[in-house]
């Protein structure tokens, strides 16, 4: 992975953009990594993977809640409402 300073990135933006098509380019500010420039192709792939992972997590949450309710528990929304009711009652 290539690393450039913010000043270098500012002065050579075209070069940084071209390099980012081959590999991520780290931009440092005050000697510390600050940003990364990546190609649109890489960004789209990362976004696709993030959305896929998010969908899997959502499905696991739904499955876990169904299983919990089937085994005598209460839905999470109901639990939050119960806690909210107690907090509101305590404020009075």
Tell me about this structure.
- The protein has 92 residues and is α+β, with helices and mostly antiparallel strands.
- The protein has two domains: 2-38, 3-Layer(aba) Sandwich (YefM-like fold); 42-91.
- It has helices spanning 6-11, 13-20, 40-70, 76-91; strands at 2-5, 25-29, 32-37.
- A three-stranded mixed sheet has the order 1-2-3.
- Strand 2 (25-29) and strand 3 form a beta hairpin.
- The chain is elongated, with a radius of gyration of 24 Å.
- The mean pLDDT is 91.
Give a brief outline of the structure:
The protein is of the alpha+beta class. It has helices spanning 6-11, 13-20, 40-70, 76-91; strands at residues 2-5, 25-29, 32-37.
Helix content: 55-70%
Shape: elongated
Percentage of residues in strands: 15-25%
Average predicted confidence as pLDDT: 91
List its salient traits.
YefM-like fold, three-stranded mixed sheet, 92 residues, 66% helix, single chain, 4 helices, 2 domains, alpha+beta
